[in-house]
Amino acid sequence: MAAHSFFRTTARLSDYLSTSFLGGPRVLKFAWVVNFQKGATLFWVLLLMWAYQNFSVQAWVYLALHGTYGICWLMKDAVFPDPNWQRRVTFGGALIAIVFVLGPYWLFPWVLISGVPAAQGYQGADIPWLAVAIAVHTVGLAIMLTADAQKFFTLRHRRGLITDGMFRYIRHPNYLGEMMIYGAYAIVVWHWLPWAILAAIWLVVFTTNMKMKEASMERYPEWADYHARTGMLLPRLRRSG
Q: At a CB cut-off of 8 Å and minimum separation 6, what does 101 contact?
């Protein structure tokens, strides 16, 4: 199944904006841009807590979750980096990625800790929902790391379609894990703004990337059978009888 023209156009535009925007030398690795945002999140949240003098349970839980995720991401990049993110980008491309894709994630803790865009008395999620967020985050992080590790080490020894392990029932477990991770942050914040940001990123960036990846995988003979028995993000329900 060929990727829809909309996704091809979106992919070309995204590639230009994140790689070549404003032109000039490509001296930065895209991975450096991503790693900076991920690694600096811990300090960003701590800065917000100090600036607004907010040391609530919700703030500490958010710090623990999003901050340690950044550390896990840097460890992942050191051991099994994503080859697609080793491409060089312009300073303009890095700026676009920071402002429009990665930067909005930093609004999550700002909403929670500052309380500026929320109603009076706002404090974030209640304790039971914090427990849900921790559980979702833990499972999501395990799914994302395991899927990325399987993909990296499998392709080092065998090129081709991966249809076992984490990819046995769903075609994009790494994206599922990432969505669970950031969905957990939105639960902690307990405000509509993080969900609006996630909806935009998931519908435009994630969906485009998954559709283009699937268009690339169509060249494998086993693709048709694999596509028929798996779901994009959730296991496909089998029909009885």
A: 18, 201, 205
**pTM exceeds 0.85, yes or no:** yes
Q: Is the pLDDT of residue 228 over 90?
A: yes
The answer to whether 3 and 214 have CB atoms below 8 angstroms apart is yes
Q: Which domain holds residue 175?
A: 5-229
Q: What secondary structure letter does DSSP report for 203?
A: I
Residue 237 inside a domain? The answer is no
Rounded to 10°, the helix 127-157/173-189 angle is: 160
What is the distance in angstroms between the CA of the first residue and the CA of the last residue of the chain?
Answer: 27
Q: Does 91 reside within a domain?
A: yes
Domain count, the chain: 1
Q: Is the residue at 241 inside a domain?
A: no
DSSP label at 3?
Answer: P
Q: Which three-class secondary structure state does DSSP give residue 231?
A: strand
SS3 123: coil
